[in-house]
Amino acid sequence: MSAQPAVRVQGVEKSFADLHVLRGVDFDVAAGSIFALLGSNGAGKMTLVRILSTLLKADAGAATVHGFDVAAEPDDVRESISLTGQFAAADEVLTGRENLVLVARLRHLKDPGGIADDLLARFSLTDAGGRRASTYSGGMRRRLDIAMSLIGSPPVIFLDEPTTGLDPQARIEVWQTVRELARGGTTVLLTTQYLDEAEQLADRIGILHEGRIIQNGTLDELRRLLPATEVEYVEKRPSLEDVFLALVGPSTGSESGADSGSGESTRERKAS
Asked: What are the pLDDT digits (tens) for 1-36?
């Protein structure tokens, strides 16, 4: 990871009339990491992402993305990022491959067909590449969305609520895709209101509440904010997700999968 943060936010404020949405937000995102901006609806997550992607101007404070100032160098910022919203952006009339080819052509890249084929393979969509996007499942559409956003190899990607409305299998598919992006060196800033999503994916988690980052740290750091408890006996039972995936099995045409739980009883003692 680079010593310079891929995203730096310092004292960012934003109001809409008398509504103060952001009240001095500060955080850094290390290059090649996954940073989860966790907060409830209305916390200001999307407002902040819109500022970082140059779609909205801050009232105060400063922010840089990939070393470029979002206010003073918006064109450079836009060339360095990709933004994927909550809803699928793919043209449902076109096939998956045609969607990718279209975006590559709009970006004036060489060999759009080759780029499309590589991304279809990367996101386990090759077999579905010739089908219209309207026939895709929710998870497949989300993966196609992310594939489209990676055309041109942006170093920073913003994902807004990437698994909203998806079933458990599709969520796991998207989580695997996000992890692969970070392993490949892409910096990912994702907004989410799902605690398990932040827990599963993030290297660091920023909790946005009433316009401020009230905590920022790794999962272990955040867990240490609560006192430890002593557990005499714990019976590990399978979660609903374990049961669901064990019954239906992994989805076809993807690399998704999950470890099933067990009903084994274990004893463990933690220091209080």
From this structure: 457 899 999 999 999 999 999 999 999 999 999 999
Query: What's the whole-model pTM score?
Result: 0.79
Domain residue limits, the chain:
1-90+154-226, 230-272
Mind spelling out the 3-state secondary structure of the chain?
CCCCCCEEEEEEEEEECCEEEEEEEEEEECCCCEEEEECCCCCCHHHHHHHHCCCCCCCEEEEEECCEECCCCHHHHHHHEEEECCCCCCCCCCEHHHHHHHHHHHCCCCCHHHHHHHHHHHCCCHHHCCCEHHHCCHHHHHHHHHHHHCCCCCCEEEEECCCCCCCHHHHHHHHHHHHHHHHCCCEEEEEECCHHHHHHHCCEEEEEECCEEEEEECHHHHHCCCCCCCCCCEECCCCHHHHHHHHHCCCCCCCCCCCCCCCCEECCCCCC
Please name the CATH architecture into which domain 1-90+154-226 falls.
Answer: 3-Layer(aba) Sandwich (3.40)
